[in-house]
Design brief:
This protein is an alpha+beta fold. It is about 20% helix and about 20% strand. The chain has two helices and four strands. It has a two-stranded antiparallel ribbon with strand order 1-4. Strand 2 and strand 3 form a beta hairpin. The protein starts with a strand and ends in a 5-residue tail after the last strand. About 25% of the residues are buried. The mean pLDDT is about 95. This is Ferredoxin. It comes from Paenibacillus mesotrionivorans.
Length: about 80
């Protein structure tokens, strides 16, 4: 089943853990905070994450010290 994700930027401390764990999904924005970049999602939570990337997403969620990565089974917007 596909997953969708967003980063709550107000909670992000820019530690880089998510990008190190799942670089295909997360990177830093111009302000240095994490965001979802998978296929141009622009942190909207509308791009389906499937296959091997689901495991990487789950590892990124577990590694986030502030729990600012939100995951759902339906698109956020």
């Amino acid at each position: 089943m596909a997953k969708y994700t967003v980063v709550e930027k107000g909670e992000c401390i820019a530690c880089g853990s998510c990008g190190a764990t799942a670089p295909e999904i997360f990177d830093f924005d111009a302000e240095g905070l994490a965001e979802v970049v998978l296929e141009g999602d622009n942190n909207k939570g509308v791009t389906a994450i499937e296959g091997d990337l689901v495991e990487a997403l789950e590892e990124a969620v577990e590694s986030c010290p502030t729990s600012c990565i939100k995951v759902a089974e339906v698109a956020f917007a």
